[in-house]
Design goal:
The chain is an alpha/beta fold and 285 residues long. 40% of the residues lie in helices and 20% in strands. It is built from twelve helices and eleven strands. Strand 5 (121-125), helix 7 and strand 6 (144-149) form a beta-alpha-beta unit. The longest helix is centred in the N-terminal third of the chain and has 15 residues, at 57-71. Bound molecules: glutamine (GLN).
Length: 285
């Protein structure tokens, strides 16, 4: 018996319908990205391709299995193994948080403090996939970049990103916050876990598939951030900066913590929704 041929057009139509019924808001986009993955075409090439082009049985089966996982709440980035961040293709896996657009604010803030030919020494704490560290090395190749994480599995992913995107020019350190960090830095960046424990279960299903260690910030979301702000000053050169991403609702509290720990010139950077997403402060000159 011959299978009725499935065309690109039909496959996309069916997929978007199934994803939509599963409550996925980005059904059309996800259908395109996943089919592009199966056919080894980027989204633009897929959209431009002949709609009656047929999928092989293998391709169709693979497409359906990816769709099933997506319908069960797994995010597209884990399914295809990468996510674009700062224009770079960042490899991701279950060991790391998928880089968010709002975290690009942290990169923007850091770049605003580093002149283009900067030779500064930068530490990216809680680096996860290494997205921030890699973006900084990409934009400021003269800087010396260190990146650390408590998770060895995350560091494997981060190292792979450094290999693919910046010729391994980042030094990785396995460390719980500053536990194994030595030396003094001109800039420290961090996107630490900052979600209050009780709120995690209320987040969308995609987030439930992400590593809890990258999200859980304790009772009020600030347990790591408190330590980080208090400890960082000892690792910053005079006049150097600390930049932290957190939830906009947490920023008044973070401002107090920065002030309590004697940071100066405390200021904010805003995400694309114009909300305070990154706070920065300097040590005394
Ligand atoms: N921005 C992430 C979210 O809202 C949280 C990231 C974090 O805890 N560092 O899902």
């Amino acid at each position: 018996m011959t299978r009725q041929a499935v065309t690109i057009r039909k496959a996309l139509y069916e997929a978007a319908r199934d994803l939509h019924s599963a409550g996925i808001e980005t059904s059309v986009l996800d259908a395109q990205v996943l089919l592009g993955e199966v056919l080894h075409k980027n989204r633009t090439a897929l959209i431009a391709s002949e709609p009656f082009e047929q999928l092989s049985l293998e391709q169709y089966k693979r497409y359906r299995s990816l769709l099933e996982l997506r319908c069960s709440g797994e995010c597209v980035a884990y399914l295809i193994g990468r996510r674009e961040f700062w224009g770079l293709d960042i490899q991701v896996g279950q060991a790391v948080l998928v880089p968010r657009p709002e975290t690009e604010t942290l990169v923007e803030a850091a770049l605003s403090l580093l002149v283009p030919d900067s030779k500064s020494t930068v530490l990216d704490l809680c680096t996860g996939s290494g997205a921030v560290a890699v973006a900084l090395k990409h934009e400021r190749p003269g800087c010396t970049i260190y990146a650390s994480d408590i998770s060895k599995d995350a560091l494997v992913v981060a190292q792979e990103n450094a290999r693919l995107l910046c010729e391994n020019a980042i030094t990785f350190i396995h460390s719980d916050l500053f536990e194994h960090i030595t030396g003094s830095f001109d800039l420290i960046t961090a996107n630490p876990p900052y979600i209050p424990t009780d709120l995690i279960k209320l987040l969308p299903p995609e987030v439930q598939h992400e590593p809890i260690i990258a999200l859980d910030g304790g009772l009020d979301g600030l347990s790591l951030i408190r330590k980080l702000i208090a400890q960082a000053a000892a690792y910053l050169a005079p006049g150097a900066s600390l930049l932290i991403e957190a939830d906009p609702s947490q920023m008044p509290k973070l401002k107090q913590l920065f002030a309590l720990n004697a940071y100066q010139d405390i200021r904010f950077w805003h995400d694309l929704s114009a909300r305070q997403r990154v706070i920065g402060g300097n040590t005394k000159q």
